[in-house]
Amino acid sequence: MTESPYERYGLTGSPFRDLASESLDDVEIFHVHLPIDDQMKAVLDEVLAKENRALVAVVGAMGTGKTEHLRYAAALARQGKAFTVYFDVPAKATWVLRQVAAEFQLAAKTAKLTGVFSTPAWLRGVGALQKMKDRKYDAVRAGKAIAKALNATAPSLLLLNDLQNLAESGEAHLFTKTLQEIADGIKPGAMVMVGAYPSYLNWMGKEFPALASRINRLIALPSLTNDEAALLLAKKLLAKRLVEDLDPLYPFDRLSVAAMNSAVAGNPRRLLDLADRAVQYGIDHRANRIDVDIIEAVRPAPAVRPAPAPAVSPAIRDASTSSPSASIATPVAARLPPPKRLTDAGTVLGSDSQ
Q1: 158: left (phi > 0), else alpha (psi -120 to 50), else beta?
Q2: Around Cβ 118, how many Cβ atoms within 10 Å?
Q3: Distance of alpha carbon 221 from alpha carbon 86, whole angstroms
Q4: Could you give the C-alpha distances from 4 to 14, 126, 281, 283, in angstroms and in order?
Q5: Which residues contact 178 (CB under 8 A, 6 or more apart)?
Q6: How many Å apart are CA 109 and CA 107, to the nearest integer?
Q7: Per-domain residue ranges for the chain?
Q8: pTM, two decimal places
Q9: 340 Cβ partners below 8 Å, 6+ apart?
Q10: DSSP letter (8 states) at residue 191
Q11: For helices 96-110 and 172-185, what crossing angle results, to 10°?
Q12: What are the pLDDT digits (tens) for 5-34?
């Protein structure tokens, strides 16, 4: 049997090739608990207990963990026996509403909510959305149908990830109207969670201030601290560990982790990419450990810092407030043009606490 080059570091293969949470079925295993998770869980627990309804927005730049946090919330909801619909808005969407309706039907089938001889009225309403032939659909009617489905299956959770991709579909205005109707129509026991770039949420707040006022909790993803970065790498390494009783961070050490985390400004996806290149460099050069010198050799050249994205107002009222129609102190809005191609790839929200 051919020896794997990763055996040098007691590994069966590269632990860092899965850069995105989209490919991880067991997201709970690799999830690094952050303080913001306590906020998210507090809101979710109230929904699962049918004490409140909620609209939650998770915002952050590319690679900061939006997908992972939404998938983690979905995993917690399923553990709590909640009806859960998760949908990644695709970059090249063709009629997002019909795809969301299809996800509802799939979730209902998985949860065995469809009868042999009859279909629940709420599911028939959602099914009608999937059959619509006109892209200029009735946004209010669509939102009412989805809200009715969430209320009928409560406790329930609808998660819409990468909402900024609506700009690519040309459905941004129409679907956002639907989202506002959903927020208005859900009852205690139902929760909608969206993930988006901060600039898209700012645009949405400017165009739809009433929807912005309904956001119960805004979760701005922070940069990883050095300890959080070390825990993320240790969890990834453990999944590929061949030899027991090694330092959980081996072949890295605390100094090399701190150097990597500083180089990527605490961005989780960029951290994993840099760690992967560092391990490959170490193997190619037969290094016994990955030290700071190796990190310096493989770290990307400093890029010209882009202009900061407009800040998302943190002045969102607390999720414990029961009325989602209460106003917020500062609108989630900025003077932005209508969305075109939104990247936000160079923006990291939160303080740099390394």
Answers
A1: beta
A2: 9
A3: 20
A4: 10, 51, 15, 10
A5: 97, 139, 140, 142, 143, 146
A6: 5
A7: 34-220, 223-298
A8: 0.80
A9: 167
A10: E
A11: 40
A12: 999 999 999 899 865 555 556 777 788 889
The hierarchical CATH code for the domain 34-220 is: 3.40.50.300
- The first and second tokens of residue 147, run together, are 């809200």
318 has a pLDDT exceeding 60: no
Secondary element (H or E) of residue 59: strand 54-59
The whole-number pLDDT of residue 308 equals 52
Residue 312: predicted pLDDT: 47
Q: How far apart are CA 311 and CA 284, in angstroms?
A: 43
Write the pLDDT tens digit of every residue in 240-285: 999 888 999 999 999 999 999 999 999 999 999 999 999 999 999 9
Q: Which CATH architecture has domain 223-298?
A: Orthogonal Bundle (1.10)
Q: What percent of the chain has pLDDT over 90?
A: 61
- State how far the Cα of 336 lies from the Cα of 245, in Å rounded to an integer: 53
Distance from C-alpha of 122 to C-alpha of 156, rounded to nearest angstrom: 13
Distance between CA atoms of residues 66 and 70, nearest Å:
6
